[in-house]
């Protein structure tokens, strides 16, 4: 049987679709975890593949432009589109159909997991399915520069934006509530990280009139407070009493985020099995910037930067539990590509 890549090339070249559909159905059932994640069975495989085929063909011209213009790629990511992005968008659309009000779809993923690319391509696909979609990042909810300066004077440990306590939770709750209640217009906050020499500040908001689906992403969206006793045996870099005190205080601040998380209808986790890859990825990115003559951090500065976030909400303590409780898990490989896809329990994670 032809490979997935060859089958999709045959589809693009308008070759007879019946044989292509049969082969694609066989491949889809071979990955049992992924098939289960997207609700594919031997009983419903034919209409599912037929629908995905039609959607693939309809979206493909726009998808090629997306890969060229947004991702700066010469070759479109056909296999990822077929195997992940299309079935994921269809699944999100199905979740939207199951409720009367707009769907707040949460995504948890650290740096390098592809949250921005994922939400952009999902927006494109969902528009072809007839849904208006808006993306909102947890970063868009940062406190203003002035308010963060005040916060830092009160707690110098919050010198960087990012950890619990550096966001405007009242604003976030207001925006998600308005979106769920179909208010029009809704002013979506936006944050410009380049302002104040990289410290960042609130930018001009974006007024939208309608959103059937809200793609709400961030590095700890959905994370819950844990038993403080776990900090006594926490992994590195939580090593000293000062580290444990900081972790404990961030854990306490995380409780303030629960009303925001309660607006989230579904949660997808972009999971990096080895969380330490985030440090490697950041170094690769900084090295590339320096090689291009742009300013970048040294390896020592990157170590300190990344470990600051691990001290605040350590991935092993806060993200690992969500792998079981969330609706869907997408593993991210060392080269940033998507790997295994499987279901969580879908239990209420509050």
Please sum up the structure shown.
By secondary structure, this protein is of the alpha/beta class. It is about 50% helix and about 15% strand.
Protein model, in words:
- The structure is a single chain.
- The chain is of the alpha/beta class and 350 residues long.
- The protein is built from 14 helices and ten strands.
- It has helices at 4-12, 17-30, 32-37, 45-69, 78-97, 115-128, 145-154, 169-180, 241-254, 258-261, 277-291, 299-312, 315-318, 320-325; strands spanning 103-109, 133-137, 186-188, 191-192, 201-202, 206-208, 213-218, 266-271, 328-332, 338-343.
- The strands form three sheets. Strands 2-7-1-8-9-10 form a six-stranded mixed sheet. A two-stranded antiparallel sheet has the order 3-6.
- A hairpin with a 5-residue loop joins β9 (328-332) and β10 (338-343).
- α4 (45-69) packs across α6 (115-128) and α11 (277-291) packs antiparallel against α12.
- The radius of gyration is 21 Å and the shape is globular.
- The chain starts with a helix and ends in a 7-residue tail after the last strand.
- The mean pLDDT is 94.
């Amino acid at each position: 049987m032809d490979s997935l890549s060859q089958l999709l090339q045959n589809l693009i070249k308008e070759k007879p679709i019946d044989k292509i559909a049969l082969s694609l159905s066989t491949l889809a059932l071979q990955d049992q975890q992924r098939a289960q994640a997207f609700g594919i069975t031997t009983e419903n495989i034919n209409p599912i593949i037929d629908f995905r085929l039609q959607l693939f063909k309809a979206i493909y011209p726009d998808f090629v432009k997306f890969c060229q213009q947004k991702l700066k790629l010469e070759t479109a990511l056909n296999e990822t589109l077929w195997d992940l992005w299309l079935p994921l968008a269809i699944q999100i659309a199905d979740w939207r159909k199951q409720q009367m009000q707009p769907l707040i779809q949460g995504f948890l993923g650290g740096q390098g997991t592809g949250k921005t690319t994922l939400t952009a391509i999902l927006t494109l696909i969902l528009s072809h399915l007839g849904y208006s979609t808006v993306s909102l990042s947890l970063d868009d909810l940062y406190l203003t520069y002035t308010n963060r300066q005040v916060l830092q004077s009160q707690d110098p440990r919050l010198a960087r934006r990012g950890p619990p306590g550096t966001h405007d939770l009242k604003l976030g709750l207001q925006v998600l509530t308005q979106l769920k209640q179909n208010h029009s217009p809704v002013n979506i906050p936006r944050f410009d990280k380049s302002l104040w020499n990289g410290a960042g500040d609130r930018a001009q908001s974006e007024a939208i009139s309608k959103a059937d689906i809200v793609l709400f992403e961030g590095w700890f969206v959905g994370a819950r407070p844990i038993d403080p006793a776990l900090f006594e045996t926490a992994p590195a870099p939580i090593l000293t009493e000062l580290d444990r005190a900081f972790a404990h205080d961030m854990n306490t601040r995380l409780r303030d985020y629960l009303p925001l998380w309660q607006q989230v209808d579904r949660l997808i986790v972009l999971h990096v099995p080895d969380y330490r890859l985030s440090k490697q990825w950041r170094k690769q990115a900084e090295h590339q910037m320096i090689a291009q003559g742009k300013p970048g951090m040294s390896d020592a500065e990157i170590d300190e930067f990344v470990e600051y976030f691990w001290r605040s909400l350590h991935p092993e303590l806060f993200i690992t539990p969500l792998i079981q409780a969330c609706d869907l898990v997408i593993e991210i490989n060392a080269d940033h590509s998507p790997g295994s896809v499987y279901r969580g329990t879908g239990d209420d994670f509050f």
